[in-house]
Design goal:
Elements: H1 12-29, H2 34-41, E1 46-51, H3 55-64, E2 70-76, H4 80-90, E3 95-97, H5 102-105, E4 112-115, H6 122-131, E5 135-139, H7 148-158, E6 164-167, H8 174-184, E7 191-199, H9 214-217, H10 228-245, E8 251-257, E9 270-276, E10 282-288, E11 296-302, E12 305-310, E13 317-322, H11 339-346, E14 358-359, H12 371-385, H13 397-411, H14 419-438, E15 442-443
Parallel strand pairs: 1-2, 1-4, 2-3, 4-5, 5-6, 7-10
Antiparallel strand pairs: 7-11, 8-9, 8-15, 9-10, 11-12, 12-13, 13-14
Bound molecules: nicotinamide-adenine-dinucleotide.
Length: 460
Amino acid sequence: MSNSYDPKTLSRRDFLRTSAAVTATSAIASLGAPAIIEAQTLGNPVNYGFIGSGSQGCAHLKQLSTIKTGRCAVICDIYEPNLKKGVETVGNNPETEPKDYRRILDRKDIEAVFIVTPYHLHVPMILDAMSAGKHVFVEKCMMKTEDQIPQVYAAVKANPKSVLQVGLQRRYSPTYRTAMQMVHSGVLGKVQFIRAQWHRNGSWRRPVPDPRLERQINWRLYKDYSGGLMAELGSHQVDVADWAFQAEPVSVVGVGGIDYWKDGREVYDNVSVTFEYPEGQKFVFTSICTNAHLDFSEVIMGDEGTIEITLGNNNPKASYYPETLAPDSPRRKVKKADTKEQNWWAGATAKSGATRGIPIYTGPTKQDPGFVEKEVDYAKKWLVSMGVLEMERERNPLALEEESFFECIRDGKKPAANVHVGAADSRAVIYANRAMDLNQKVFWPNRPSVPAESQISNKL
Ligand SMILES: NC(=O)c1ccc[n+]([C@@H]2O[C@H](COP(=O)([O-])OP(=O)(O)OC[C@H]3O[C@@H](n4cnc5c(N)ncnc54)[C@H](O)[C@@H]3O)[C@@H](O)[C@H]2O)c1
């Protein structure tokens, strides 16, 4: 994504349009109000247990070590090196549990748990934790099989006071929230298409110190424990599509293969999937392990503009590319008698979108910024777009989602990444994998669907 200003395609008006949307959303976008939360809960931090201090677990613990509204009382991990690393990372000398996470759940002093274990363990651990009355933060993707969806809903219903939050951290990023507000308020016009890719060049394999630990350490490569690229990577991006379209898909088709890394893995290394949404919108997701050129991002395309957005290194970045509605678009109610524009149009079938984007960032946090603040905000954007000023780094969305989790526990608020968001996300992942396994179109339940009990997919 380039942030350079292109005078041919961008105007001050475009900046004003972006800024208007950004300003309108800034109050919503700033989910965490750390000073306020701290004042409310500092004297009463949430006492939590942490289950699974592997790679993502330590990424969480690093952020958690900076958040005063929660206190890590105990870490559980069955792999000793990771348990040690977790304790070092969080840094407050928590107790350790090397064998059985249920011992943490038995403790009355533990109010909440983080579940950051492999995919197949999420739901069994959620159910145990909720029946022990704990608040639960669980990493994405939440559910691995379709029958787990009603099980989790039943647990939520039986424990109405427990918070259940899913680790879809884009939902907590001010940049993503602002971009979504732009989409929902029509800045991009009508959005019929989203494209996302998560491309890497590598085996996805981790070194194993002892062959007996192969499946434990490389769990992502085996179907008993993993939903493959779709669950590990695509789940973030299908959630972005759900969020943008404000709906779940109605069907999915896809092809997947183990085409390059023929090393005994059971999950695809090459995935192309197309979801259809209720108004015919399409979401195309690809994930490959043989080329990293495109890296990962989501591109949301409307008939009046595009947003390209990514969460690379947990540092969100987004650009807006304005585009003119086609002169013969059915959405253009009154055709302008502007001959100049029509002459221009005569030579082209459609005006291309801006080739360089306007950076989206959240700007002033006041609901009604004054004239000077607005002007300063525009000037900043302008300078960022020209490459003169560096974009300010947003707070890590892992920290924002953790902080929000503690706030929900103390204040009774509902999480942004709640059970419905997590269930919709899981359903899309499960159905996409089923479509690829069976090489058939899979429909969401209100339409005839491929039966879940297929020989190929019943392990999923
Ligand atoms: N939100 C994100 O951006 C993001 C990024 C990476 C991973 N994740 C998710 O986080 C989860 C963990 O991924 P990871 O990369 O950290 O995996 P990992 O293998 O590095 O860590 C998992 C940890 O769980 C431990 N574990 C396994 N079984 C256990 C048990 N019964 N009790 C206690 N501990 C147990 C393992 O020993 C390991 O340390 C996955 O669900 C993954 O999808 C989310």
